[in-house]
Design a protein that fits this description.
single chain, about 425 residues, alpha/beta, Rossmann fold, 2 domains, 6-stranded parallel β-sheet, 14 strands, globular, binds nicotinamide-adenine-dinucleotide
């Protein structure tokens, strides 16, 4: 088939590369000439394990075509996937302007029968608004169907997730559109769930909010564990061993971040407000998340007798999670801001996210960055683990101890065993332990 992806972000570029690799002819449309030129050379605009290799391979095979031009990419397509960003507006609602702008461009260029499927996460009702834009902007005799095809990939494991999804959800009125989408996904061994458009839209928000709720649940439990002497990891293991609950997403820490959970929970809350249904459960998920990083910061502050002035603090990890350079809504950002606001100096190391961190923090929150984990600890007063990159798990803690002014670790991701670290002579503060 010939498929077109609008947007070459985490969703658009990853799925485009995977479908090209399955033998389809794939167009990927962007709007930034520099990024498109780089992509034509196989240079990806963000880090995702294995992605650059897959893009290069499919460029060489001429199955993957990057373009700025809708006129080139739309007319031949059997399926067009909308994969543009839907960030939060100040009200918490999703900003749908990129979805609607892309829809206008698609409409003008539709030729034969085309399925236009939205992978962007959008509130209920959006796909029907897309249909109206397509209807209004297309040439008279052109036929199309719309579908909601929400995406569930995770940054850091996006290729694997796209090649081996737990399920593919497709919502449409048209059986023909669903048949086309099922045929396209045939080489991917997964459950293909056919739903209505509204149901597919709701599944995505429900799934992300429930995952975020599991994290906020674990964090709420960890606040208590910190005080009553229980061990959050064992508590959650004991809970998660119940098959009805499951072990995943029950790790306490400094809170969730990234481009999806925070904005999608907020958008679901906004939907409950719009339709006047009780949204307090979803609101609490977000509130607890805000408290999680503040709780971690307060623990550090209390250790220094509420006086962080002149203290030098090391942060290991800036990205919102390991194996990505994505800094959107990363918990490291409020932690750094709180430390700087209290007069501390921050030295940070992250294997991939430094450039994006500089952009996110701006000049007002300038910090020092080091090229490796150990030099970030040179002469500092404490080490804070904020992102659980693998390289931190096996770090040479003897070396770390020699570097630090005082051997104290605040482990926001519980990557170390307290007993072992204490035996090495560290003061160790885990999360919920
Ligand atoms: N990142 C994830 O892990 C993930 C997972 C599942 C779903 N989603 C959802 O998928 C959507 C996209 O997320 P993302 O992380 O890939 O976003 P992103 O910010 O990484 O990428 C968005 C892309 O859209 C492009 N774009 C915007 N307007 C355009 C236009 N008019 N024409 C062409 N390109 C345009 C941007 O240039 C960018 O390349 C969002 O709704 C998000 O919630 C994201």
């Amino acid at each position: 088939m010939t498929i077109t992806f609008i947007g070459h972000g985490y969703v658009g570029l990853v799925t485009a590369a995977v479908f090209a690799d399955l033998g389809n002819t794939v167009y990927c449309v962007g709007r930034n000439p520099e990024k498109i030129n780089n992509l034509k050379k196989g240079l990806t605009p963000f880090f995702e394990p294995g992605l650059e290799e897959l893009v290069k391979k499919n460029l060489e095979q001429k199955r993957l075509i990057f373009t700025l031009d809708y006129q080139e990419a739309i007319p031949e397509a059997d399926v067009v996937f909308i994969c543009v960003g839907t960030p939060s507006l100040p009200s918490g609602e999703a900003d749908l302007s990129a979805v609607f702008k892309a829809s206008e461009e698609i409409a003008k260029n539709l030729k034969g029968y085309t399925v236009v499927a939205c992978k962007s996460t959008v509130p209920v009702g959006t796909n029907r608004r897309v249909a109206k834009i397509l209807e209004k902007g297309k040439k008279k005799d052109v036929k199309f169907d719309i579908a909601s095809c929400p995406e569930f990939l995770k940054e850091g494991t996006a290729l694997h997730d796209t090649q081996n999804p737990d399920r593919i959800v497709a919502g449409a009125d048209s059986v023909k559109a669903l048949d086309v989408l099922e045929e396209l996904h045939k080489p991917i061994n997964s459950i293909f769930l056919r739903t209505t458009i509204e149901t597919a839209e709701m599944i995505k928000y429900g799934a992300n909010t429930l995952l975020a709720a599991k994290i906020s649940f674990a964090n709420s439990m960890s606040f208590l564990c910190d005080i009553v002497g229980a061990d959050i990891e064992q508590v959650m293991e004991g809970i998660g061993l119940d098959n009805r609950i499951g072990k995943q997403f029950l790790a306490a820490g400094v809170g969730y971040g990234g481009s999806c959970f925070p904005k999608d929970v907020k958008a679901l809350v906004a939907m409950t407000k719009r339709y006047k249904t009780p949204g307090m459960l979803f609101e609490a998920v977000e509130e607890v998340n805000q408290i999680a990083h503040e709780h971690f910061f307060q623990k550090v502050k209390k250790y220094f007798h509420n006086d962080l002035k002149g203290k030098k603090i090391t942060l290991w990890g800036l990205a919102f999670k390991p194996d990505t350079d994505d800094m959107r809504d990363a918990p490291s950002l409020p932690i750094i801001k709180s430390l700087l606001n209290e007069g501390a100096k921050v030295v940070a190391y992250d294997p991939k996210a430094v450039e994006n961190a500089k952009k996110s923090l701006g000049e007002k929150y300038a910090i020092e960055y080091t090229p490796d984990a150990y030099s970030a600890c040179a002469g500092t007063d404490a080490l804070l683990i904020v992102t659980e990159w693998n390289e931190f798990k096996q770090a040479d803690l003897e070396k770390v101890k020699k570097q630090l002014k005082k051997p104290v670790i605040f482990d926001g991701r519980n990557i170390y065993e307290a007993k072992k670290v204490k035996e090495l002579g560290f003061e160790y503060y885990g999360t919920g332990k």
